[in-house]
Amino acid sequence: MSTSPALHRKVAQHLRERIESGVIAPGSRMPSERVLAEQFDVSRVTVRQALKDLEVAGLVTVVAGARWVRGQAPAPVALRPAEPDAESIEEGGTGLVSFSDLAAANGLTSSSKVLTCLTRPSTLDEADLLGVAPGAPLVELVRLRHLDGIPTLIDFSLIPEGLAPGLGGHDFATASLYGTLAEQYGLHAVRADCVIEARGATADLAEHLGLPPGDPVLEIVQTTYDENRRVVQWCRSVYRGDRYRFRAALEGQAGHAPRTASAAEPSGRGVVPHVARLYP
Fold it and tell me: Residues 52, 129: one domain?
């Protein structure tokens, strides 16, 4: 591993090219010093100096102790301290992004462990969620997702088997669910509705995610549609609260009197519709 002083300028130039080309998007978090050191086969001291060069150039800013690409850097957020060298992931308003692609953009390696993969009849409630007849076959897929080997989320998915016959026979420890749906069945995710809630981890979830029971997790329930407005997936994803951040732009309603607000919807602010959402 090299520590030549001239190397930091080469590393800085490579990172500048990634930023300017959009590989590392504006407003996204820079990969950690450890990850960059491994990628470039240099010391962390070299990486640190390269990142300082980018800060001086105005390409990178530091927020809450983390480095972000300038453009839409988020405001500081108080988080529980993460474990040493633990990586976190952040997604923002860039549309539907796969877990593996989002991880790669942050300089992390994603992996999956399949906990459940079976084809079975749908219940009445499940059929209602998927827009199919009660008893119609569905594929139930549950995966534990990792970043650099660290458990980050559990993903519970239901897919109408009628749209993707034989889907349960694929190995989703390595295959992308949405990639398989697109490539093998011509099903493309074009829109998703999601609800985000903070919860305490149940004992079962806590065991899988390596948390004490009751620790904070972020639960996202999503329904995804194809171009024909068919439900191609219903999904419940549970993330460790210290390993994941969801970022969205907020817009004011200039020139309009605020509506009567509910507790869940403050007046004068609204989430821009096209925020990013992670898909498997």
Answer: no
